[in-house]
Specification:
The protein is 53% helix and 7% strand. By secondary structure, the protein is an alpha+beta fold. It has 4 domains: 150 residues, Beta Polymerase, domain 2 (2-Layer Sandwich), CATH 3.30.460; 78 residues, Hydrophobic Seed Protein (Orthogonal Bundle); 158 residues, Hypothetical protein af1432 (Orthogonal Bundle); 71 residues, no CATH class. Strands 3-4-5-2-1-8-9 form a 7-stranded mixed beta sheet.
Length: 494
Amino acid sequence: MRIPSEVKTVLDALKNENFEAFIVGGCVRDILLDREPKDWDITTNAKPEQISKIFPNSFCENKFGTVTVQTGSKKPNLAEIEITPYRIEGRYSDKRHPDEIKFAETLEEDLKRRDFTINAMAMSFGSKADGKQRIINSRSSVIDLFSGQEDIKNNLIRAVGEPAERFNEDALRMMRAVRIATELKFQIEAETLNAIKKSSDLINYIAEERIREEFLRIVRCVNAYDGIILLKETGLLEKILPELVEGIGITQNKHHIYTVFEHNVLSLKWGAEHNYPLRVRLAALFHDIGKVRTKRGEGSDATFYGHEIVGAKIVSKILTRLKFTVELEHTISMLVKYHMFYYNVGEVTERSVRRLIAKVGAENIDDLVKVRICDRMGSGVPKAEPYKQRHFQYMVEKVQRDPTSPKMLKINGNDIMELLGIEPGPKIGQILLILLDDVLDEPKLNTKKYLTNRTKELGSLKESELKELSGKAKDKNAMFDKAVDEKIKGKYWV
């Protein structure tokens, strides 16, 4: 494997000043697995101030002594290369950060502090012998004090030293073990796995943001299903997502052969294996999370009325707790809320589709269809109803040019104020609501002329009359939702 010139330049610069220099950690593991490293990390016996002197175009912004060298490379993973001095770490009283950092004298001391054997290897390169920037005699160039190469050969994740001590130092290492096992399709070695199970409570010490990032890396894997199951087996899932665990053992009705938990995770499996976007995978994983709290009855006729509404609220709380962005929280919650949208060829009108688009947003319709596919395929149903899916997408595209929100009307609030000579107030919103209702029923009415005349007509009404009309427009949406809900219940036994 070729070593990037940026990495070799940094290594050579350290060696030319008579310092030791090795690539270390995950990049060594990736090289041995014949994978291109995402990041290149270097360790050395030089101290931060010595490193900074060698590399003027660098900065050091953390207490660990890591110096980041800016290489000027156009490749994102090579634009900055981190160099960390050999170090040893003190107690981890908060289970997250070492109380103190001390610089070490030897590479062996540094490797001992690392998490897993496959991440505790270093690799050296002769600056003269490999002038073509190739690894030569990689077996002899690997410094492997904890049998990391053997564990790679056996597809194992094993803690360095005593597993319980490693997890007591940094509890996030438990999540990391699951994530790496998922990414590499490895197994967690028995003693290490047992230590995670016994130490799983320690994850409560970890900041939600750090948990979220490891969790998302698991969900992004093609075999995300295996990662979620492994989180369950280790006891970590019930600590970070207790709402999802509630579905374990909860049976469904005649349209499902799996429990609620199995169905949710298998829905994610389909989305991950078909490379669906992250938001769709998360919505698939959580889409039926509200069923546990809405289940009524047992056996084939059990019902889950309103589970999508309850589920959306649960998902919103989960994503807020894990510090997701407001935008992603809103999108995923919305996909969960509307994943039960009713669609049957010949029954659903263009008006129904327009109103659905108005609720979820045109930009989210494709994702909503994907969540529905995940739902069906995670139920054990042999096919994803491709004809209905294609017909629905045809209907969406057909009405896509039609207005589905006040923003798409050929008139806005400022126009209404100017036409009627009024100040900002509730009257403007009431008129917009009535105009939108008109256009949802008949898209061709969305013209400046019609809306202007209709606005003048509405502006002449008494306050009570306008309020009544806008109330009726709002009620139409409510009646539509109720009618669709009844059809959903009858069709899907939920």
